[in-house]
Design brief:
This protein is mostly helical. Helices cover 75% and strands 1% of the residues.
Length: 329
């Protein structure tokens, strides 16, 4: 059993690594900026206009957005794994991401004049997809882990078909949505950051209050009922919170897969299953993972840029197969 002191230390170190990675990421690109110059630009005004423009208008918003989205998706995955009692649950595999993507893409392609409703549409689509998965996976004795995966595959296939259909009938408008479909942070500036930040802060605050309920429900339905908890209500509330965090992430940058699957596993190995430590660990680690993916995508293959969603799929796919191989359901 991992001690509380060790868990707290690991979480703290991970947050420090996240901040350090953010500073380094700001300095990387076609124009390399040293760490002292970055700190000077952020905390004082005695810098060149070029550095001010690159950092404040281009790189800093993108880095902060990557941190926020990574944290959102990781927390969402951790909550879904508690709710479903399934270590393979995440917003992508359970259809939440693709359901949100269908509604967002419908607005982007069919009714672009209503883009202000994209966050709401993403949430509605995510809830609808999650409801279908729950309905298909529910049994009298609980939720079957393997049925969740199969239901998620079915919902993802259905949503993929709808996305393909929308791409065909609105092919003339598709180029504007290609980067979004691949989960790219390219050209995401302050407007995207300020759109997602208020929702993210609300989600994080609610997640703090959800820690106790997540710890209770992971003990099993019978134990939770014996403690006087309404199991079904807990599942619904935590699921809505998980869908909310995943949906606003999809609304901001598109579909990012496997962060919600990989990160909670890594967090659980490092700090244990107690959500008092596992949830903030998932938050920091998710932010760090997505930042590394985005920074690698825009620097390793320069001048070509690989969307973070593609890199996460390349890494996450084999990892998912590894998890399936080592577990028996």
């Amino acid at each position: 059993m991992i001690s509380k002191t060790r868990s707290g230390t690991i979480v703290f170190i991970t947050f420090l690594c996240m901040i350090a990675a953010g500073i380094i990421a700001i300095g990387l690109g076609s124009v390399t900026i040293s760490v002292p110059d970055i700190l000077k630009t952020i905390f004082s005004s005695s810098t060149t206009d070029v550095h001010n423009t690159i950092i404040w208008d281009i790189r800093l918003p993108r880095v902060v957005l990557a941190l926020i989205i990574g944290a959102n998706i990781a927390i969402s995955g951790a909550l879904l794994q508690a709710v479903m009692g399934n270590p393979l649950a995440d917003p992508g595999l359970t259809g939440v991401t693709s359901g949100a993507a269908v509604c967002v893409l419908l607005i982007m392609l069919a009714t672009p004049e209503y883009t202000q409703f994209i966050p709401i549409a993403a949430f509605v689509g995510g809830v609808f997809a999650a409801t279908i998965v729950y309905a298909l996976a529910w049994r009298r004795n609980g939720i079957s882990p393997i049925t969740i995966i199969l239901s998620g595959v079915a919902v993802n296939a259905l949503c993929g078909g709808i996305i393909g259909y929308l791409s065909i009938i609105y092919s003339d408008r598709l180029p504007s949505a290609v980067q979004w479909l691949n989960g790219s942070l390219a050209a995401k500036g302050n407007s995207a950051l300020f759109m997602v930040l208020p929702y993210a802060i609300v989600g994080w605050i609610l997640s703090v209050f959800a820690i106790r309920k997540a710890n209770i429900i992971r003990l099993g339905d019978q134990v939770a009922s014996n403690l006087g908890e309404n199991v079904h209500r807990i599942r619904i509330v935590l699921s809505l919170l998980a869908v909310f965090l995943a949906a606003i992430s999809v609304a901001a940058i598109g579909m990012i897969g496997f962060v919600g699957l990989i990160v909670p596993h890594m967090a659980r190995l490092l700090v244990g299953s107690n959500y008092k430590y596992m949830l903030p660990m998932s938050m920091a680690l998710g932010a760090l993972v997505l930042l590394v993916a985005d920074t690698g995508g825009r620097t390793l293959f320069a001048p070509m840029e690989i969307p973070a969603g593609i890199l996460m799929a390349v890494v996450g796919g084999p990892y998912f197969l590894y998890l399936m191989r080592r577990r028996t359901f």
